[in-house]
Amino acid sequence: MSYQANHLCLIAENVKLGEDVRIRGFVNLYGCTIGNGVRLGTFVEIQKGAIIGNNCKIQSHTFICEGVTLEDEVFVGHGVTFTNDRFPRATNEEGLPKNDNEWTCETTLVKRGASIGSGVTLLCGITIGERAIIGAGSVVTKDVPPGAIVAGNPARLIRTQTKGVNAGSIS
Amino acid sequence: MSYQANHLCLIAENVKLGEDVRIRGFVNLYGCTIGNGVRLGTFVEIQKGAIIGNNCKIQSHTFICEGVTLEDEVFVGHGVTFTNDRFPRATNEEGLPKNDNEWTCETTLVKRGASIGSGVTLLCGITIGERAIIGAGSVVTKDVPPGAIVAGNPARLIRTQTKGVNAGSIS
Amino acid sequence: MSYQANHLCLIAENVKLGEDVRIRGFVNLYGCTIGNGVRLGTFVEIQKGAIIGNNCKIQSHTFICEGVTLEDEVFVGHGVTFTNDRFPRATNEEGLPKNDNEWTCETTLVKRGASIGSGVTLLCGITIGERAIIGAGSVVTKDVPPGAIVAGNPARLIRTQTKGVNAGSIS
Question: Which range marks the domain in which residue A9 is found?
Answer without folding.
Answer: 1-85
